[in-house]
Amino acid sequence: MIELQSISRLYRSDEIETTALHGISLSIRRGEFAAVMGPSGCGKSTLLNILGAVDRPTSGQYLFEGVDLAKQSEGGLAQHRARHLGFIFQSFNLVDDLTIAENIELGLIYRKGRPGSRRALVEAAMDRVGIAHRARHFPHQLSGGQQQRAAIARAIVGEPDLILADEPTGNLDTENGAQVMDILKGLNAAGATIVMVTHSPSHADQASRRIDMLDGRLVASVAQAL
Amino acid sequence: MLQSILVSFWRSFTRRPLYAALNLLGLSLGVAVFVTLSLLHRFETGYDSWTPEREKIYAAGIAFNIQGIAPGVRIGAMGGLLDEMKLDYPQVRGVRDWSGAAVIHRGATVSSEQIELVDADFLAFFQVPLVVGDRASALRDPAGLVLSETMARKYFGALDVIGRRLEISDIAGRNAYTVTAVIKDLPRNSNLKLDFVRLLTPRDVATTMGGWHAWGSVMLQTWFKFDDPAAVRALEAQLPAFVDRRVGKAFGDAVTPHEFLRLSFVPLKDVRLIDPKQRAAIEALRLVGWVALGLALINYVNLATARAGLRAREVAVRKALGGGAGVLRVQFLGEAALTIALAFLVGLAMVELLLPLINAAGGLSLGLDYRLDGAWVAGVFGVVLAAGLLAAIYPAFMLSAYQPAEVLASSRTPAGGRFGVRLREGLIVVQFAAVVAAFVLMLGFFGQVRHMQSVDFGFRRDGLYLVNATRGVGVTPQQRQAFWDAVQRIPGVTGVAASSDAPADQTIDSNSSATRLDRPTRPEASPTLSWTGIGPGYFQTLGTRLVAGRLLDLAHGGDETYVPKPDLETVTNAVISRAAVRQMSYASPEDALDKLVDFQNRKTRIVGVVEDMRFYSPTEKTPAKLYTFYGYPAYWPTGWPITLVRYSGLSEAEVRARLEAAWRQAAPDVPFEGKTALVNLDRYYKPQRDRTNLFSLGALVGAGIGCIGLYGLAAFNASRRTREIGVRKVLGATRVQVARLLVGQFLRPVAVACLVAWPLAYWLLRRWLAQFDDPVAVDPLVFVAGAAAAIAIGLLAVGGLAWSAASAEPGKALRHD
What we know:
The complex is a heterodimer.
Chain A: E1 2-13, E2 16-28, E3 33-37, H1 44-51, E4 59-64, E5 67-68, H2 74-84, E6 85-88, H3 100-109, H4 118-129, H5 144-156, E7 162-166, H6 174-189, E8 193-197, H7 201-205, E9 209-214, E10 217-223
Parallel strand pairs in A: 3-8, 3-9, 6-7, 7-8
Antiparallel strand pairs in A: 1-2, 1-4, 4-5, 9-10
Helix pairs in contact in A: 3-4, 3-5, 4-5, 5-6
Chain B: H1 2-15, H2 17-45, E1 57-64, E2 74-75, H3 81-88, E3 93-106, E4 109-118, H4 122-126, E5 130-133, E6 144-148, H5 149-156, E7 165-170, E8 173-183, E9 196-199, H6 202-206, E10 221-225, H7 229-247, H8 257-260, E11 261-267, H9 268-271, H10 276-320, H11 325-362, H12 374-400, H13 404-409, H14 417-454, E12 464-467, H15 477-488, E13 493-499, E14 501-502, E15 505-506, E16 510-516, E17 528-534, H16 538-542, E18 546-549, E19 571-577, H17 578-583, H18 589-592, E20 596-599, E21 602-610, E22 625-629, E23 642-647, H19 652-666, E24 674-676, H20 677-720, H21 722-730, H22 735-769, H23 780-807, H24 810-815
Parallel strand pairs in B: 4-9, 6-8, 17-22, 19-21
Antiparallel strand pairs in B: 1-2, 1-10, 1-11, 3-4, 3-7, 3-10, 5-8, 6-9, 7-8, 12-23, 12-24, 13-23, 14-15, 16-17, 16-20, 18-21, 19-22, 20-21
């Protein structure tokens, strides 16, 4: 599904040049649940941003289902994200001024040529994460766990090919963290491909593959028995 | 998409009411000022839009190129212009409108009105709308009378009054007329005042005793119609030759008439604002409207970019979810369009609420009729929306340019970069510069208005009553004399005098060349003096200072103007004004005494010099005067003398009541007309005062908008800096220190604004003052006060905010995210 070949990412600011990724090559197959581990600043989030097409590599090739994303325009990348990707963030990133249902609907409105009722899809997604009773609330009225479940609903409402989760349990207590992991595992079991960045070894152990990073390089990529 | 825009727009009100209210209030105020001043501009430039062929109609205008006569085109012509034009150019189509005073008699009661003596096809020419009657035939009969809706109601209590009769005294004496048509009331912005209209007859022309063909006189309005603009230009090119041919030697043997008198066709739409100063004032007010709208939009940009930081995360999420920059721009511009549309509605509501106040402050009668003005309102909305969207482009592009990876990775709220901060500060500078400049101008304007009204006019303005009735239609010399005698006896009256000239009033504007006879002078190079005929006690009644020589009186031989059979050697004595001494190039007032002058074909001896008197508009130069004497009431030409009454110890109402009673006794068949000199003069000063009031209103609203912007920005800055404030306080800063820091930061752009505003305001003020004959010196205090006022308002806006931000507990501030 995903082929990364010699991906590098440099950040330049005034006089300092930082290399976040050093020639990373990686392939992810459909249906995989990959957990990316590593210390702070090792390039996990940069890798996830590149996978999510919100950042472009400085060099290297990124093929998504055989399509070279480096050649896509800004608008093309935006449509790619709308059509194929779902994002889950550590700090939820729900829009303050929108209700839970409206936030989830955001996952649909930027997709072109998608007929049918959005409302039904939003309701289905809310049911899947158990947040339907909070549909008309605003994010600040919800607990962290509920907010993250809403964010997951937003990520899955468009039935994306790939879900990218950036420390989805990082801001949650153990119990809520476990719930979120259960949802992600369920989604994976139902066929979703997931790439998750995490600091938690126990959560990483629940993935089908574990990728370790250090200083912008891949140091290990191990398939795990579930 | 539309739904998404609507939801965001609605939530901005329910979730951030302060921000939304500030934004909306600022925009609405800007819209309100803009709409009001656009209305004023439309009113002033829309004169006579009611006539369907406005574009084809032209007024005859003349301009003089003569020393001592103000330059510029006057609307009007001699009575016989149209006749003479038709002789040389038979294809010319035109009508005349000769306005005069009329007295309407109803039994024993009399009232004064204005009557128009016009050509038979006048109503058809202008396509005047009628309530009843027929345009083509209404003025065929010399005994026919056309009156307005208002007058029909006033005199008959009905509109269907064809065949009813009215007795009217006017230039043709007292006659009965039969109503043949009723005119729909014309809008207030019309150059025509059609209260009473009757046919202009040869008998009326005969009353001018040959003055009908006096080239250079401005006696009535002559209107022309041309289907083709090229025809106007073609004919206008022939006018100098026409003037030379027709005037012949009437201006003197060695004179080329068209060099002194320029005849022109003034488009009807330009007639109202023919005076460039008037037009400039109206355009300046429109500019104030644009500036107010600009300030409001600057607010919008400021608040929107400040808020952008708070929306950065939302933008990043929307982008991560597949929203492209283009879609987001549409979203933000859509939200802006909705905000502007709502602000427009609120602004219109404000206009409706404030119009009575504005009309009162500006002496106007502006109004909006949504049935008739729908297209205009839509047009103004289009302009506001276009300007608003133009302003919204920057925030929309700035917002849509956030990179999701950066925003989502950072825990801080982006401030929009150094450029954004600079831009916001720059916009605040622009905004406050406009406010400071407006304050300075406002104070400067008030200074001049006060100066104009307090300066020495050369005569005593208070305690002076002007009785116009003595020159009314049908007044006999016996009635005048009886009135003057009676007034002398009124207790409290200390002086009575007659004159063809009074403060802000004159029977005739007569300007003639004056040739010095004490040295060789070419007559065509002689300066022009303005003539006034005065009765006994004129200068004493006015309280005018004698500068040299003596005043005119009955005791001196040769003072009387009226000489039954004057010959070339008859000498008439005259008094001139100080300005005339300069105009005639005498070394000093004393030097002018006993000098002989050829004036109006009479040998005239200067026996005295008086102080200049300011009788007219403050923007007009005080004319150089020559006064001659009418010692005997019987010699006054009919319809000439205005009566000046000096009184003391009486209220205005008391003196009016006593004068009116005396008038009733003396001339019961002529209505009493009179007012104080102050009231009469006010019509020259009121327009300046009204415009200054309007400008001040605009300036104050502009300042309000500026404060809203400053407050909004300060509020956002304070909330963005909550953490910094916490850190500073943990490190030991006191509340006062933090508040001072915040206020200092808020006010820095205001201080810069003063430096920008001062030179601008100075330049504008000097230009404005240049129109006055007697401009006040520019007072530096005005600049300091204007800036101080703006800073005080700025402090008021941000002071409280800074104090409460500085008062936050550090612990709470540090937890803030």
